[in-house]
Structure to design on (694 residues):
């Protein structure tokens, strides 16, 4: 089953939406219908705070405010700053009497209330298009500034006719100046150069303007604190402006560029011997079976660059080294530059990995970063990086052998071409391959909404009534068949895909719960699992609120399940988010309870409503005295904290009897029902009583 398309929520989660605000309910409904006619699915805000909240928490494409009363003019003013920050068009719907004031208050355009559908469609399209273009430009500008910063390279433009000179933000930073003190002309720039440089810079700039593309010019620049710094100007070429041509070029601050390089060189000094000593120490300390130590061997090849000028090659090497230094800041590494300067070998030590796969993740991140194009004098260059990975224990026991195995793996990777990454162990290579296959199809599955949700009943053990459902993600892969959450949830967590996946399940569960409620069936609680990553994301609360608003499902019927480890990570921000959810009326439940380390004192701090005893304790409850002791103490603890306790994995009558005798509140497990598709779950909602409680 694919997710059915729900107009509201689909719009909210996929494409960027229109936000429609107004205090008059009837007008809001009317305009919602009008916008639908134009092919848009708006989200609505009925008051000022909902409007501001919507603007802050979602990625809207356009805001329309229905101006009926004076108060809404004030909404415009309040929204103005956010709207400008996000580059959104703000349209006001008002009659001619309010037009001028609307524009003064911040509206970018006014629409008459009786505008025709055809005209409205056109105006919306025009606004959306130009907003998109502005946002794209802004994004490009930011990316560009970031790249310049990373490369410690700025830009300048020089108009040979007026001798006006302009620097990019990064250029000014390299000159140690703020915008207010930026030199506006060549003469002003030259003032801070030593006398002998002044003529040469003028001659050089005009040579650039003449199209001769002179060699880079080295200058001594006097910073605001009087100290001298070595600057280098590189000619980029000419670009047309206003019917003539102006010079553009690059500005580099050599000491800054060199700093990154020297950091690397210092590491290099920690030669092979030190690297091996350190590796030996780590190997002797690492706890076998609990953590892994890996060695990565990188081969960075400049061969593919073809015939580059010495200067361009130097630039590429510097950038590559700076990236490597940035990515391996806290790691042990040593490198040896090959004599022919066509390639560089680097070894990196990765201690304390919880899984072998983490070595692959680090390798991939490194490779992705090093593979980004390097731009020099308007041309972009690519280096090729292959990586071999050897794991202590599995591949070799002593340091020198481990380093050797990593090199071997790297040679295999190079034989494969295409800049690949290989483990020395064949088993790990195929495990990685399987993971990568799942990873890439999971991404597609989420985008195409190919995942679906199954519902597993939770039952009130005192009455035998259905008390709610837990929504669980299911994935029917077109060729691999049913893939269990056990396989894809950890991958989704690793790759961040758990965020859209969780939202999909949340959305679907709320939508389903609301659909049943609208049918007149008994309202049911829906529990949704959220991962630690969700609690680290600042817009979690906004998203939940949004989904509730978009689907109409009451907050009181939504329950969020989170694990103990989620609670323990990032305590303060998680706590703040839990409090916000709680104040909205959402219930909170701790999943797999008993497997983590939460103490009673710790638990008391969190505003949770229930605990779910992990199924591992319930499984052997009736036979294993230790499990029954743990279950009993969790129940007592729950009661003393006034928390509802739910037993997971309840499969047998004997377990049920035992739990009832202990006065456990709720149960969930195959005994009452497996996770099932919505149609089957609906039958349980109708039936309500799932077992005779007497
Ligand atoms: P969970 O949240 O603890 O969910 C309960 C799991 O126990 C479900 O496995 C369910 O099918 C299984 N189960 C229920 N009753 C019984 C029983 O009587 N016996 C046995 N042996 N198993 C039972 P499922 O659906 O395979 O999910 C596994 C885990 O995957 C979930 O554990 C949850 O941690 C995660 N997961 C599933 N869907 C989502 C999701 O949408 N988001 C997130 N973040 N995690 C999810
Ligand atoms: Mg759960
Ligand atoms: Mg569980």
């Amino acid at each position: 089953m694919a997710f059915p398309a729900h107009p509201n929520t689909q719009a909210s989660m996929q494409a960027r939406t229109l936000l429609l605000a107004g205090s008059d309910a009837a007008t809001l409904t009317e305009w919602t219908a009008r916008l639908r006619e134009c092919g848009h699915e708006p989200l609505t805000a009925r008051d000022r705070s909902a409007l501001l909240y919507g603007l802050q928490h979602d990625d809207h494409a356009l805001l329309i405010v229905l101006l009926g009363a004076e108060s809404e003019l004030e909404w415009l003013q309040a929204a103005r700053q956010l709207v400008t920050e996000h580059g959104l068009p703000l349209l006001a719907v008002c009659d001619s009497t309010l037009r001028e004031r609307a524009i003064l208050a911040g509206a970018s355009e006014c629409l008459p209330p009786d505008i025709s559908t055809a005209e409205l469609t056109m105006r919306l399209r025009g606004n959306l298009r130009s907003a998109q273009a502005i946002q794209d430009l802004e994004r490009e500008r930011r990316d560009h500034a970031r790249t310049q910063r990373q490369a410690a390279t700025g830009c300048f433009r020089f108009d040979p006719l007026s001798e006006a000179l302009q620097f990019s933000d990064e250029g000014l930073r390299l000159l140690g100046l703020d915008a207010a003190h930026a030199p506006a002309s060549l003469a002003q720039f030259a003032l801070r150069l030593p006398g002998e440089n002044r003529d040469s810079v003028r001659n050089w700039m005009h040579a650039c303007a003449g199209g001769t593309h002179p060699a880079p010019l080295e200058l001594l620049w006097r910073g605001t604190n009087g100290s001298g710094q070595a600057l280098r100007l590189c000619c980029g070429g000419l670009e047309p402006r206003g019917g003539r041509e102006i010079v553009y070029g690059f500005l580099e601050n050599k000491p800054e560029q060199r700093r990154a390089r020297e950091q690397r060189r210092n590491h290099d000094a920690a030669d092979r011997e030190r690297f091996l000593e350190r590796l030996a120490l780590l190997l002797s300390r690492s706890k076998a079976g609990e953590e892994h130590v890996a060695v990565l061997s990188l081969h960075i090849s400049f061969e593919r660059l073809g015939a580059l000028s010495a200067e361009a090659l130097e630039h590429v090497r510097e950038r590559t080294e700076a990236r490597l230094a940035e990515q391996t800041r806290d790691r042990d590494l040593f490198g040896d530059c090959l004599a022919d300067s066509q390639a560089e070998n680097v070894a990196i030590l990765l201690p304390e990995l919880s899984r072998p796969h983490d070595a692959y993740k680090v390798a991939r991140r490194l490779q992705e970063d090093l593979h980004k194009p390097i731009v020099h004098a308007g041309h972009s260059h690519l280096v090729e990086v292959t990586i071999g990975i050897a794991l202590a224990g599995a591949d070799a026991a002593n340091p020198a052998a481990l380093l050797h195995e990593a090199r071997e793996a790297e040679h295999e990777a190079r034989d494969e071409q295409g800049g690949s990454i290989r483990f020395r162990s064949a088993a790990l290579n195929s495990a990685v391959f399987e993971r990568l296959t799942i990873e890439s199809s999971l991404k597609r599955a989420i985008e195409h909404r190919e995942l679906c949700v199954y519902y597993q009943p939770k039952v009130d053990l005192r009455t035998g009534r259905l008390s709610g459902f837990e929504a669980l993600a299911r994935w029917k892969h077109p060729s691999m068949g049913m893939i269990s959450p056990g396989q894809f949830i950890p991958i989704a967590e690793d790759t961040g895909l758990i965020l859209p996946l969780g939202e999909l399940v949340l959305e679907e569960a709320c939508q389903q719960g609301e659909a049943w409620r609208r049918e007149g069936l008994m309202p049911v609680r829906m529990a949704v699992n959220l991962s630690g990553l969700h609690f680290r994301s600042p817009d979690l609360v906004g998203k939940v609120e949004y989904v509730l608003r978009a689907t109409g499902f009451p907050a009181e019927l939504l329950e969020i399940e989170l694990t103990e480890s989620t609670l323990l990570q990032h305590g303060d921000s998680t706590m703040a988010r839990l409090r916000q959810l709680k104040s909205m009326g959402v219930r909170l439940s701790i999943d797999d309870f008993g497997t983590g380390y939460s103490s009673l004192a710790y638990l008391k701090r969190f505003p949770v409503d229930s605990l779910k005893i992990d199924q591992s304790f319930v499984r052997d409850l009736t036979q294993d005295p230790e499990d029954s002791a743990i279950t009993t103490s969790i129940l007592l603890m729950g009661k003393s904290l006034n928390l509802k306790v739910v037993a997971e994995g309840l499969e047998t009558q004997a377990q049920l009897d035992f739990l009832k005798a202990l006065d456990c509140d709720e149960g969930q497990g195959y005994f009452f029902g497996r996770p099932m598709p919505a149609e089957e779950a609906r039958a349980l909602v109708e039936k309500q009583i799932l077992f005779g409680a007497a």
Residues 591-592, 612, 648 surround magnesium ion (ligand 3) (CB under 6 Å). The chain has four domains: 11-144, 153-252, 269-424, 452-683. The first helix runs from residue 7 to 13. Residues 23 and 71 are 9 Å apart (CA to CA).
